[in-house]
Structure formats: C-alpha cells, structure tokens
Amino acid sequence: MKDMHVLTDCLDALKISYTDQQLEQLYRYYEMLVEKNKVMNLTAITDFDEVMIKHFADSLALLAYTPLREKKILDLGTGAGFPGVPLKIFCPDSEFILVDSINKKLNFIADVCEELGLNGISVCHSRAEDLAHSPEFREQFDFVVSRAVANLATLSELTLGFIKKGGYFVSYKSVAAEEELEQAKNAIKIMGGKVQKVEGLVLPGSDLDRALIFIKKGVNTPKQYPRKAGMPSKNPL
C-alpha cells in the first residue's frame, strides 16, 4: 500500500479521525477505481495524490462540519461513488442509498462495496424526478448529499422531496457559488427548504476550494414536485 500521508495530513487538518482499516478500504477503492477506469469512464482524475484529495478528502470534508452517525443518507448522482462510498466507510452505522441514472457505474459501486465488506449501503438505478415520488423514498432521509454538477436550483428541486422535515440537503459546490445561491432561492423556498449555512474551505495541501451548502428542510414539499423528468434542468424554478 502506498503512503497515504497526502490524505491523512488533510484529514488531520480537518480534524477528521480515521482508522487503519478505513485507510486500507480507501486504498482498495482507489485500486478498483483506477483499474475499472481503463475500460469505463468513471473519472478524469487517476493520479494517486489527486484521487486522495479531490475525491476522498473532498467527499469526507462534510464530516468536519456535521456528524453523520446513525442517519439515513441518499447520495444523488453518485457517479463512481462520491461522496457516498467514502462517507459510508467513515460512518459505518449510517444507512446509505446511492442513486445514479447510469447503471454500469452502480454495478461498479456494488462491486466495491462487496470487496470492502460494507453493509448498510445499496445502489438504486433511477432518475430523481421519478424516485422522489415513490412512497419508499418520499421524505424518508435525514440527509441528501450531492457532488453533481447541475445548478443549485435544479438540484434543490431534485433533492428536497427526499428529505424529511428537519433534515438537510448538502450540496458540494465551488466557493464561487453566490450567484447560484441567489438564483436558487425560489426553488429552495418552493421545495420547503431554507439555506442554513455555507461552509467554505480550501482542502489542506491543495488549491481546491469548496463550499458546502446546507439547506434545511422546514416544511413538506408540495406533492407536484419534482416535476417530470428533464423539467428541473430545462426550466429551473
């Protein structure tokens, strides 16, 4: 196993504790990611140090600002498993569901979870516009997290229907997110949410800046939202 000081230095600076087993699981995840990426487009980032910071530390940065113990968490647009898989490794007593519209990526994640011996984590192949209307998923989660690239107004419509009252949507954005926040105000309000705080940071040992936008669910989402597939992105609220 390679020296993981790039990651551990970053976690130390963020005051996020870790075990040898967790580091070993992340390293195995890295190996599987790079190997699978040779035959499937999972990530443009494959350099060891960059994966440690830009995928692993970035995913885990949320734990510097909120505990996720014994929570039910949905990761929307998980892609190759970020931030959901690293968060699950560090939050073994929380339940995770990772959602994406590309099934072959979810198959990779399922293989990773089996290889790492992760329990209490599952994958779901669906579009958020459909899944958020399912009684099994509607307003059932303590947290929804997403590193997806959609704008915040679209993401707010796609995510807030999953969250129970008192729960949170946490959007991973760049620090320059003020304009997106302004444009998303209406969508957030319609969906029953309110911006509680924005945590800005530069990941230690890198030039990667990050804003974690915490949107708290205050009231139930109106039944008609999210709208049918494609509408939230084509015509944001």
Summarize the topology.
Elements: H1 5-13, H2 20-37, H3 48-60, E1 72-76, H4 84-90, E2 95-100, H5 103-116, E3 121-125, H6 128-131, E4 141-146, H7 152-159, E5 163-173, H8 178-190, E6 193-202, E7 209-217, H9 231-234
Parallel strand pairs: 1-2, 1-4, 2-3, 4-5
Antiparallel strand pairs: 5-7, 6-7
Helix pairs in contact: 1-3, 2-5, 7-8
Treating each run of at least 4 consecutive H or I residues as one helix, how many helices? 9
Low-pLDDT runs of 5+ residues are none
- Taking the alpha carbons of the first and last residues, their distance comes to 48 Å
The averaged pLDDT comes out at 96
Give the CATH topology.
Rossmann fold
Q: Specify the structural class.
A: alpha/beta
- CA-atom Rg in angstroms: 17 Å
Indicate how many domains the architecture comprises: 1
Strand order, largest beta sheet: 3-2-1-4-5-7-6
What would CATH call the architecture?
3-Layer(aba) Sandwich
DSSP strand content: 15-25%
CATH class: Alpha Beta
Portion in helices: 25-40%
Q: What is the strand tally?
A: 7
Give the CA-based shape: globular
The CATH superfamily appears as Vaccinia Virus protein VP39
Oligomer: single chain
